[in-house]
Amino acid sequence: MATLKVLAIGAVLGSFKSFFSKVKAFDQKHGKFEMVIATGDFFAPEDDTSKEEELIELLEDKLEVPLQVYIMQGQNAFPKAVIEKVEKTGGTLCNNVFLLGRAGVFSTAHGLKIACLGGAYAPEKFYDKANGADLSNPYFTSASLKQLLNQPALNPSASNPNSLAAMKALTSFQYIDILLTQTWPTSIAADTTTMPPDLQPELAPQLDELVKKAKPRYFFTSGAGRFWEREPFYWPEENNRLTRFVTLGAFGATGTGKKERWYYAFSISTAPPPATPIPPPANATRNPFLADSSEGHKRTFDQTIEQGESGTFGNVEKRFKGADAGKAPPNEKPHEGYVCRICKGTDHFIRDCPQKNPLNADGTRKPREGYVCRACGSDQHYIKDCAVAQAGPKEVVRGRGVQREIRPDECWFCLSNPNLAKHLIVAIGTECYLTLPKGQLPPTQTSDTRGVAPVPGGGHVLIIPVSHYPTFSSIPEDLAPPISAEVEQFKSALRKFYAKYSAQPVSFEVSRLTAKGGHAHVQVIPVPNKFTSEQIENAFRSFGQHTGVEFEVEEETEGTNMRRTENYFRVELPNGRKLIHLMKGSFDLQFGRIALGNLMRLQDRVDWKTCALSDEEEKTDAQEFKKAFAEFDFTQ
C-alpha cells in the first residue's frame, strides 16, 4: 500500500500553457505528485476565442503535459473539437490528459477510486429525457445521476456476485476515495460555522444521495469560483470514515482583484480502512447528510425523482433545523448483507453495537477511555451529546460564559480571516506559511539591538499550517506527513539563514486542546551563537523550576510526525535536543518567550503587546526579512 500525493486544481478555462508550466514548477518544488485532478471547466467558454490556438495545440499533442491530468465537465458544454476527439479516442485528449466522462467511476493504477458527475444543475432541465452521456449537454440530468449511482463502486448490490472472488470484493467494499461535481449538494452547507456569508453556491438536493452512497474521503467542486475548505465530517457507521469537502477558485480567472486560491495539495493512502473506529479530528462536525427530516428519514434518490417529477419537493431547509438534526433514526435496521465489524452481528449498525461502548442512563454513549469533552470538561459523554455545547456560546455555566470554538474566518492565523495581518507573511509553501509575529522578541526599528538581534527584520517567525487544525497532533494521520515535512523544511531553511548572521534557531510549540480551539503553529527565534545549547537549555529549566514546569528529554521516536495525545510544551534546541513538558494544569503561553527573554536580557520585551509596532514599521521588517531570506526560501 502507498501514500500518494495528489494536486486538485480549479477551473483552467483554456489557459493550458501557463497551467502546465505552473504544474511543472509546483511538482519540482513540492512533488512528486502522482496526478492532477482538474475540477470545473478545463476549457474556455464558447464565446472566448482567445484560447482557440492553445486548444488546437492541446488536441494535436503539441504541449508538454508534465503529469497525468484528469478532467471533468464543468459549467459549460465541451467544445465541438473536444467531443470529436473523445469520440475517436474514448477519452484521451493528448498525452497525459484524460477525460473522466460525465458520470462514472474511474480506478487508478494504484487503486484510487474517483467518481465524477459533470455538468451544471438546472431544476427545469434535471428531468429532461436527454442522454445522460451526451457531452454537448451542459447540464447533468436524472439519467446521468442515476447512471453514476448504479455503478458497482457506489451500489455493490448491483454487481450480482456469482463467484467467491466477487463475493469477497462485495464484503470488502470501500466506497469512493475522491468525488468530483460541479454543483454542491444542498446539505453540505449545513452544520458548518466556517462558510463565508457571501459565498452563494448553486445547490442541488439530488446530490445528497450521491454523497451518502459514495462516502468520499475527498470531495472537490469549483462551481462557486471561490476557495473554501469545510470542516471535515464523518460517517459513524463506517468507523468514523472522514470526508473533506473543498471548493476551489479558478486558475484561469481574469480580473484585477485578488485571485482566489485555485489549488489543493494532499496526500491519500491506498491502505484498507481501519477495522476499528478512529477518533474524528477536533474540528470535525456532525454529518450533515445524516440529519433527520420531519418524516424521520431522508428521501432516497428514486423518491426524490418521483416527487420532483410531480412537483412535490419538500422544504429542504427543514433538515438543518432542530436539536435532533444530524442524528440517525433510532433503532434503524441495516440493509441486507450488512455485518457489524465489531461483533459480526447483522441486526444493528456498528454505531449501535452493544460491544462498542456502554450507554449512559439517558441512552447516549459513554466515551472511550481518556476522552474529555472540550465544551464542559466531562469524561462521561461525547461533545455531540453535551448540553453545554448544544446550548451555544451564550449559555452560562458556573458563572462563566462557555467559549465556542473559533472559526477559521475569526482565527488570527487562518488565511481566510479578512483581518489577518497579511503584510507580515514572508513565505507561503504548499502546506504551511511563514510569518513574522506582532511584537517580535528581538528588537527592531532601533539602533540599539543590544547585541542579540543580528538577523534582518528581527528573524522571529511563526511556521503555521495553511489548514485550520488546533494542534499538530489533531491533524489526521494521512494528512500529517506532508505538513510535518514542510515544517521541518522551513526549520532547515531558517537554520541556514540564521547561520549567515551568526545566530541559531530555538523553536517551541504549545499543543493544547481547549474548548475555544486555536491554530497549530511553531515559533522560531534566532539566538546569537555566543549562547550555547547548554546555556539555552538551562534557561528553560531554570525558569521552569521557578514556575513548577518540569522538562524531560524527548526521544526522537516519541516525537515522530509531531504526534502526541497529551497536551504539551516542546522546545527544540540548536543542537537538535528536544525538551518536553506534559501539561497537567495551567500553563503560561508566553513561557518560551520569557525563558529566552531572560537569557538574552530582554525582560522588558517578554510581553509582545509592549513591543508592537505600527503597520508601516512591520511592513519594513517583513521586507527586510524577505530580501535577506530570499536565497534560502524554497517556496519561490
From TrEMBL:
Keywords assigned by UniProt, alphabetized: Metal-binding, mRNA processing, Zinc, Zinc-finger
InterPro entries linked: Cwf19-like, Cwf19-like_C_dom-1, Cwf19-like_C_dom-2, HIT-like_sf, Zn_knuckle_CX2CX3GHX4C, Znf_CCHC, Znf_CCHC_sf
Domain CCHC-type residue range list: 339-355, 372-388
Entry GO CC: post-mRNA release spliceosomal complex
Keyword Zinc: yes
Pfam families recorded: CwfJ_C_1, CwfJ_C_2, zf-CCHC_2
One GO biological process term: mRNA splicing, via spliceosome
A GO term, aspect molecular function: nucleic acid binding
Stated name of the protein: CCHC-type domain-containing protein
Naturally occurring in which organism (per UniProt): Sphaerobolus stellatus (strain SS14)
